[in-house]
Structures are given as structure tokens and as C-alpha cells.
# Entry
Amino acid sequence: MRQTFCRIFLSGAVFAAVFMTSCGNQEKSETAPDSGADSAVVGTSSAYLTRPWEDPKFAGWQRTEFENVVVYYPPTHQHQADMAQTAKNYRNAITKISGTAQLPVPTDTIRVFYFTGPGQGFELTQRPFPYGDSIAVYYWPNYSHGVSLMQRLFYSYFGGWSTQQIMHHGLIALFDFSGENHHETTLEFLRDTFFIPLSRLASDTAMDSDYERYQSGEAGSLVAYILASRGSTGVEAMYRSTLPFDQAVQQVMGITLDSLQKEWISFIEANVGPIDTTKAKSGS
# Structure
């Protein structure tokens, strides 16, 4: 497989600087309540769960808009002066992710609640890490922007989250803005015999992109290969599939799990460097 086979998928480094860049359209800041025109989540009874910007705990929060991105933040936020730029950077990130993933840029409203830090984030959400859901992104500093953003974007791209953990956590790892090269990491796993064969990775209950980049990082490398070789159509079909992973591979790609693993390793070897495959564990 030629080295020119989409080197853009080799590393998250192309995304690491997105939140330091800007776009160039209008933004507006205000304290007035949001119109909340987008639809509520089906099956949710509390208005505050479907329209959290109306929750009294966010009373007095300001907001800034850039295109379809709305950022809410407390008036005492240490980065208050930078929030207009933050809204631009989120939009820039969404555009870059969509372009790389070959998916339409979302046009629905992307809301971001930007907390001052982990203390306020946990106090108001009762969650240990930033996260995203069908309503908004809930972010606080000192964590990767990409994880919570991708959790929200799954609803824009696919209408919800997948039961295919390799695809779900792999996409999060691929676009987590950490700058880590998951192909290089997977190559090191192969050389050191830490590589997890796909037959095990597909059912690895320890995979969690909130906590680790061992299983999910390897999944990110695989998803990058599927995106490079099968395009967004293949990625979306795999993400939406409710079949067991090996059966989804057979249905979507027409190959066995072992064949996919061999293709993937060959791709890494062509793009990163030679692999001593005698050290890699078999896919059985």
C-alpha cells in the first residue's frame, strides 16, 4: 500500500493547534437567553435537561456566538476575554473534523458550556470529565477539547452513539486534538507484543476514550485506516451497524476480521515504517 495513501490520518497533530487558530466571520456576545429553537431529546421529561441554558444554575451566564456555535460561560470566567475566539475555534475544529472525516459540516446549533475548571464542572454536572451529549458540549480547561466535542458531534453526524466500541472510541481518539500519532503508537505495540488483535479489541471492556489511549488509541489507528481505505461511507456503515464487529466487517467490507487486520498492519508499515510481524500476536 503506497505511502501517499492519506498521510493526513497518521496523526492527531494536525488537530492539536486548532484551538489556537481562528476563522473570520461575525460573532456576537450577550447575556440574553437563547432562543432554543432546536428540538428537544425524545423521552426527556425535564425542560432543564433539554434546554439547560434555561436552568437557574446557569443564571447570569454570558454567551458568544460564531456561525452555528454558541458558547455559554460564567461572567467571572478567567478566559472571558477570549470567548469570542473560543467560539471561532470550535467552529474551526468542527470544519476540520468534518473535512478530514469526509462528512457534511453540521448545520445544527452546537452549544458549549465552558466551565472555569474541574471544580465548577463537577459541581454543576456531577461528571468527572468534560463530555458531550445530544444537547451540548460541557467543557472545562485542562482536558482535550476533542473528546467532548466528538461526543456531541456523533448526534449531528449519525443521530446518536454507536454500539460498535471500536468505531465510537476510535473516532474520539482520532479527533481528540491530543497530537498523538496513533499509527506510531500501534507500531510500537506491534514491536513490543502489546498489540491487541482485532478479535479481542472488538470486545475489550476496558476500552474507554475518557480514561485511556491504549485500546482506544489502537482503535483510532484502525478507524483512520478504514476512513482512508473505505471512506466516510465505510466508516458510517460500520458506526451504524448493530452486528457483532466481525460480522459488521464482513457485511460492510466483504472481508474477514483477520484480513482487515492484515490490511491495517500493511497500511501502518507503508506509512510509518517496517514492522517485524513475527512479534505481533495473531488475530485468532
